[in-house]
Amino acid sequence: MLTVVAGVLAVLCMAGAVTGYVLYNRAAAPDRSTPDVAVVNYLQATLVSRDLNRAKLFACDGAVPAVNEFAAQVAGREQELGVAFSINIEDVVVSKTAASDAIVTAVIRRSASIDGVHQSLADTWRFDVKDKEGWRVCAGNRVS
User: Fold this and answer.
1) Strand spans (E) along the chain
2) 129, 133, 36, 40: which is closest to 88 by C-alpha?
3) Nearest to 42 by CA among 138, 121, 112
4) pLDDT (tens digit per residue) in 30-44
5) Under a CB-based contact definition with an 8 Å cutoff, are residues 67 and 90 in contact?
6) How many other CB atoms sit within 10 Å of the CB of residue 99?
7) Which of 34, 71, 104, 141 is deepest in the core (most CB within 10 A)?
8) Tens-digit pLDDT profile for residues 49-85
């Protein structure tokens, strides 16, 4: 009887461990399911969270230099003005050029209250995205 109870407990513990592992992997895996999701996640990691290691998960070759330059400009401006910008990614549009290539345009809006006045600037960006075991941002440039 004791052997049967021990066997059942061992099976339950093993099933719980496997379930926990599967759920953790699903929660921790970066979402690169579509081109627009990959771009938004890349921009969130780079501009909002400022987590370059996380951003690399959404990029082809580690980083997109133009976006990193933009992030540095934003950080410098925040320090200069003594404010924190709110970054929003808006009007995300995908146009596929091939089965594993896409172009994504997005508006990056940064807003802040400076001396009691709410101010906002927006720039349109164009990103080249490729499907490499999930969509990844390979290049990006400010359009306007």
Assistant:
1) 86-98, 101-114, 117-131, 135-142
2) 40
3) 138
4) 888 899 999 999 999
5) no
6) 7
7) 104
8) 999 899 999 999 877 999 999 999 999 999 998 899 9
